[in-house]
Write a sequence for this structure.
């Protein structure tokens, strides 16, 4: 292992954005003076807010952010449990008629909008202290927060976000509305990483050139030359800001950023900006097609979408949440992906009739095992060589499995592995606890496949699940995970709060007992235990990475379910042997025989484990994150509802393909 690369971790990127201070768009303060007033003393917001007209009560959650007028809180409707982002505007901040008018304008305009890529306006009310505006909650904040953590995004990510911005913007422009404040902080991102255009505080109806108000509004770095020259703001001025957004995401800083506002304005008027050479020629062409001084020379939104940058480059369908803080590993769709999408659709989607048409024998199709191994990303991927992909390569040739020849370990990795091994032999030999009856990923897969297939085969049809165990025996499962295998490995938190990382080169390090104990596994049967305070030098950087991932998970990720158990300090936690990701689910195999499958879209989970009396327990964690544990024999005997049966079928298919890969 090359420990040098561990030092490259930037601990800041694991911090939640809130700890890094508000994201900055550039070095210049915003022109929107009405929004950047110093804070006046505000009445303390009550823990529960009541809408006196409807009687609905809302409980205040965490502070999401602060704007010029508003503080924005997460709030939960105590009747429906629905969560909102609520902009709370103190009455004393809108006491002047023009201030009040601004908020009324924002509300009246936003109310009328309904589009997939526009933040949904729910409702509003006011009491004597505040005005409350209830909006769709965008739990991953905004592109400004992502940009702050990442600085630059990859081209596929830029295409992913820009397509959604353009879709929302076309909707606005078609309705004759100008946004007039397009900037990273106004592109909100929801739990599913979908973009929503928001903040209509400066939005206005499009007027004829003669009628256009000649006021300057917007964010200085993103102001169009015609707005600065007081020729008014048209749809093309929004397009200009979009070009600035694209430049910022690709280059890491706004195009016209300088230390001096006057100089910035001069650069904008002269369209003077630098283009870093690492930006691809196609992206450069698109940016310069947008950043045209004359609005009529500027590309239109449709021309932008038809540009080679979009038509010749791959745009992912979705992005992993981890991409908010780290570079994602994105692969263009392969035939295998299409195949698995089809399987998943038949299992969970509308085409239920087709379920029976996807027999396990399909794995005998000579191309199938290749296809499936092509779509999975897993802890064994390092043994598979992928073609290196240029950002603009055509989708059909990129990211596909080109060979299954194992990659050689690099000499540095080999040497480092040996050196750790050597030093333990010298100093820690007595700590080694060789395991008997070592389970391998293959044996766990085989066993799980056997018991689940036979359960499905004997299961009668049923519409309901059997009674679940009221007090199931405690077992450990993965409550949070983070895939950072593009650099280091796969991290996970168990339900007893111990954390582990399966590193790319096959070693495993976990922290237990409130991080005081370190378990290190050089191989599946070479385990070492240390006090964190007396960890050998060679393992410190690995431990640091585990800690960084643990902190990231603690601060950013939700618990995957309601089942918790106390930390057993005496025995080492189960060891993750292997993880496999398909487009729809994550499979994890442990050295105690436990298998867990997490379905990404609805957050449901299946956990198969063995109880101390040798019987198998199957736990289903629902989309509401409620867990139900059944005796597998009971499921086999009494059957289960289709929700669970479909998932069990998917797991069996996944195991089949995995076993054959
Ligand atoms: P203002 O209009 O007063 O400038 P903003 O609309 O900018 O207020 O909101 C202030 C902050 O609140 C934003 O920076 C963002 O962090 C947060 N916020 C606003 N709307 C949402 C939302 N829909 N979901 C999540 N956070 C939001």
């Amino acid at each position: 292992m090359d420990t040098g690369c561990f030092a490259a971790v930037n601990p800041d990127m694991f911090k939640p954005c809130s700890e890094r201070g508000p994201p900055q768009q550039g070095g210049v303060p915003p022109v929107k003076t009405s929004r950047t007033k110093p804070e006046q003393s505000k009445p303390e917001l009550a823990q529960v807010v009541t809408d006196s007209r409807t009687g609905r009560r809302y409980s205040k959650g965490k502070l999401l952010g602060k704007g010029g007028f508003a503080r924005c809180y997460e709030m939960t409707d105590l009747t429906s449990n629905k969560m909102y982002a609520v902009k709370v505007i103190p009455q004393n901040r809108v006491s002047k008629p023009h201030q009040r008018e601004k908020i009324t304008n924002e509300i009246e305009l936003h109310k009328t909008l309904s589009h997939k890529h526009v933040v949904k306006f729910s409702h509003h009310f006011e009491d004597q202290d505040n005005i409350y505006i209830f909006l769709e909650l965008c739990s991953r904040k905004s592109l400004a927060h992502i940009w702050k953590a990442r600085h630059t995004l990859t081209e596929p990510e830029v295409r992913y976000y820009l397509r959604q911005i353009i879709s929302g913007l076309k909707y606005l422009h078609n309705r004759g509305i100008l946004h007039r404040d397009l900037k990273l902080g106004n592109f909100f991102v929801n739990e599913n990483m979908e973009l929503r255009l928001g903040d209509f505080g400066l939005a206005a109806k499009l007027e004829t050139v003669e009628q256009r108000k000649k006021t300057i509004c917007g964010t200085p770095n993103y102001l169009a030359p015609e707005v600065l020259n007081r020729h008014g703001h048209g749809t093309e001025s929004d397009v200009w800001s979009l070009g600035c957004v694209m430049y910022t995401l690709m280059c890491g800083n706004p195009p016209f950023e300088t230390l001096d506002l006057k100089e910035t304005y001069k650069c904008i008027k002269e369209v003077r900006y630098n283009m870093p050479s690492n930006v691809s020629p196609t992206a450069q062409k698109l940016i310069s097609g947008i950043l045209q001084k004359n609005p009529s020379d500027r590309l239109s939104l449709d021309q932008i979408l038809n540009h080679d940058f979009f038509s010749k480059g791959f745009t992912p369908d979705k992005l992993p949440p981890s991409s908010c803080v780290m570079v994602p590993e994105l692969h263009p769709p392969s035939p295998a992906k299409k195949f698995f999408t089809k399987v998943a659709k038949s299992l969970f989607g509308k085409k239920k009739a087709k379920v029976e048409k996807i027999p396990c024998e399909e794995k005998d199709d000579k191309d199938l095992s290749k296809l499936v191994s092509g779509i999975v990303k897993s802890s064994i991927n390092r043994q598979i060589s992928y073609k290196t992909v240029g950002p603009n390569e055509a989708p059909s040739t990129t990211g596909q499995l080109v060979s299954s020849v194992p990659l050689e370990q690099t000499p540095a990795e080999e040497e480092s592995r040996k050196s750790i091994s050597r030093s333990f032999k010298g100093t820690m030999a007595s700590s080694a606890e060789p395991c008997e009856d070592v389970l391998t990923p293959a044996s766990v897969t085989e066993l799980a496949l056997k018991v689940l297939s036979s359960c499905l085969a004997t299961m009668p049809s049923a519409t309901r699940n059997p009674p679940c165990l009221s007090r199931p025996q405690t077992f450990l499962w993965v409550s949070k995970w983070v895939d950072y295998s593009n650099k280091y490995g796969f991290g996970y938190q168990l339900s007893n709060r111990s954390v582990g990382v399966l590193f790319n080169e096959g070693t495993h390090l976990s922290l237990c007992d409130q991080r005081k104990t370190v378990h290190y596994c050089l191989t599946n049967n070479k385990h070492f235990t240390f006090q964190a305070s007396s960890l050998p030098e060679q393992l410190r950087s690995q431990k640091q990475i585990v800690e960084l991932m643990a902190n990231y998970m603690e601060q950013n990720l939700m618990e995957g379910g309601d089942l918790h158990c106390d930390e057993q300090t005496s025995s080492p936690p189960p060891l993750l042997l292997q993880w496999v990701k398909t487009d729809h689910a994550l499979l994890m195999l442990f050295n105690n025989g436990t298998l867990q499958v997490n379905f990404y879209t609805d957050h449901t989970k299946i956990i198969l484990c063995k109880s101390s009396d040798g019987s198998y327990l199957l736990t289903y964690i629902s989309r509401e994150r409620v867990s139900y544990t059944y005796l597998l024999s009971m499921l086999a005997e009494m059957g289960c509802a289709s929700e669970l049966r479909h998932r069990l079928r998917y797991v069996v298919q996944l195991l089949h393909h995995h076993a054959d890969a």
